Amino acid sequence: MQCKQCGYRLWNLRSRQCPECGSEFRVSDFEFVPGVVAFCCPHCEKAYYGMGANGHLIPTAFNCVQCNNAIDMESMVLRPAMGVDEAQTVVGLIPWLERKEIGWWRGLYRTIRMSLFRPSALMKGAVGIEERRDSWDFAAWSLLITVLVCTGSLFVFPSVAMFAFSPGGTPGAAELIYMFAGFCFFSIVLVLLGLLCILVWGLCTQFILRLSMNEVQPISRTYRALCYSAGANVASIVPCLGWYVGWIWWVVSAVLMVRETHRTTSGRAAFAVITPPAIVAFAGIALYAIAIATVISRAGSFAITTSGPAGFGVPSFAKGETQVLLRASLDYSDERGALPKHPVELLKDHRVDATAFVSSETMTSAIQIRWPGLRLMDLEDMADAARDRKIQSFVDKLPPSAYAHRAGDFVFTCPGVDPATLSPDVWLVIFSPQPGPGQPTQTWSGMTYVGRADGSVVSMPTVSFQNSLQGQQTVRKKNGLPPLPKLSSITHAQPAVASGE
Predict the structure, then answer these.
(1) In this structure, are residues 476 and 381 in contact, taking their beta carbons and an 8 Å threshold?
(2) What local confidence, expressed as pLDDT, does residue 308 receive?
(3) Last residue of a domain, which of 47, 69, 91?
(4) Where do runs of H (alpha helix) occur along 4-80?
(5) Can you tell me whether residue 459 is helix, strand or coil?
(6) pLDDT tens for residues 70-110?
(7) Is-contact 273 257, C-beta < 8 A?
(8) In this structure, are residues 340 and 415 in contact, taking their beta carbons and an 8 Å threshold?
(9) Could you read off the pLDDT of 354-363 as tens digits, one per residue?
(10) 154-176 burial string, b = 16+ CB within 10 Å, else e?
(11) Is residue 299 part of a domain?
(12) Dihedral of the alpha carbons of 223, 228, 229, 234, in degrees to the nearest 10
């Protein structure tokens, strides 16, 4: 029982005035859990216990059975019954339920704090409360706060990268809007999954309790305990350590709340609460181990094939990516009689997507790929017809004698040429990441891959690539093609153009 003005505890007082702020009060202004508050005679200290609907005395006035003095409820001295904690005396001692009076944020914060540090007291305050959807609302908001803070980096870091690496340092509004929308959608999905987990968790916990106890509270009380324990998961937002302790704190808080709810032992509550997530965790570990074993057993399928001598055991991711772009280019030629005039035309009919021009072996981002008047990521947001018109307009403005174009980590040669008229060993697609200013070109495997006119992809060590390039110049001369310049000189802004352009 606390002063409604200043919060001062009003137990053991004979007067009806708060010693702290001077406000007057009446006992009938407060509600108590029936049977847990001692109403003591002001003359002889004889204790009576209120069993009325609000925990009040029935009747409110009578003669004391010990001293025979006339007394009434308003004149008595109140204190918690022997062995009863103060938190157990007040109906609805859950700040979240008082949020209309104390404020939404304050109700949420105080309930989260109790879930973290006083979970048993939080459930003791729930005695006599009829269950509503409030506990589920609290769980949803607690999970949302945790998810927004913990996964905020998924939105913040890419946004910073866009500002840092985009030309001019100004990413398009569309990219930021799509990223923000995706972040919000991802957060909502995680919250819904968390609520679904609580739903299943509660069913399993209630089932185990019924197997081990003769009498249990309704399942709505179990859900109430698990929902309010979700506030403890906010510990996950602590940098570095949160991911490791947040879920443990949640489980411990849930154990204490379930124990208080069902009036059972700590061991029984722990077994009922911990068993379901433990089974899920062990199943996840087992599946992970199986997946790792499967990947290891199939690792040989990623090794470098006889088409090129890459280092033993180094997966040739870029080789497969080069093969994809080469195959798309040849398919384009089969349909239209010639290779695309620019690699961006491969986006037509969804032969490849924008990320195909970015190798997993480099730090290139699709956001960085921009030709004069055309940005790659803008095409991803367009409808097919509008995208094709945009691409065609861009291609029509290309220099007529351009014979090599860059698209991300790849250089495309022989634009507009029918590969059937070329010798099989002419290079069409070259994996050649463009280094940053003053930086050497580096890839994970240290290999360079070239796609040839016969549809094969050849691997060669990057350190000896220049020797292979000299041989290719001879091949190009025999096919009537201009020699390739230094590949790093071919940029998005500057294709290789024949002399005179």
Answers:
(1) no
(2) 39
(3) 91
(4) none
(5) strand
(6) 999 999 999 988 887 776 676 656 888 888 878 899 889 98
(7) no
(8) yes
(9) 888 998 877 7
(10) ebeebbeebeeebeeeebeeebe
(11) no
(12) 140
Q: How far is CA 484 from CA 31, 93, 403, 461, 476, in A?
A: 88, 79, 9, 19, 8
Same domain, 182 and 35: no
User: Do residues 381 and 427 share a domain?
Assistant: yes
Domain enclosing residue 64, as ranges: 1-91
Predicted confidence (pLDDT) at residue 436 exceeds the cutoff of 60: no
| Whether residue 101 sits in one domain with residue 72 | no
Please give the helix or strand (H or E) that residue 358 lies within, else none.
Answer: none
How would residue 126 be classed by pLDDT, with cut points 50, 70 and 90?
low
Chain position carrying tokens 């199986």: 290
Q: Give the end of a domain, one of 91, 110, 136.
A: 91
Q: Are residues 84 and 132 in the same domain?
A: no
Would you say residue 175 has pLDDT above 80? no
pLDDT tens track for 240-295: 777 778 888 999 999 999 998 888 888 999 999 999 989 988 998 888 888 887 76
Residues 341 and 405 in one domain: yes
For the ranges 39-48, 150-159, 435-444, the maximum mean pLDDT occurs at: 39-48
pLDDT at 236 over 70: yes
The continuous run of DSSP H or E covering 406 comes out as strand 402-407
User: Is 329 found in the same domain as 249?
Assistant: no
3-state secondary structure 200-262: HHHHHHHHHHHHHCCCCCCHHHHHHHHHHHHHHHHHHHCCCCHHHHHHHHHHHHHHHHHHHHH
The two three-digit tokens of residue 417, written as one number: 């040429």
Taking only Cα atoms into account, the Rg of the chain, rounded to an integer number of angstroms, comes to: 36
Residue 302 inside a domain? The answer is no
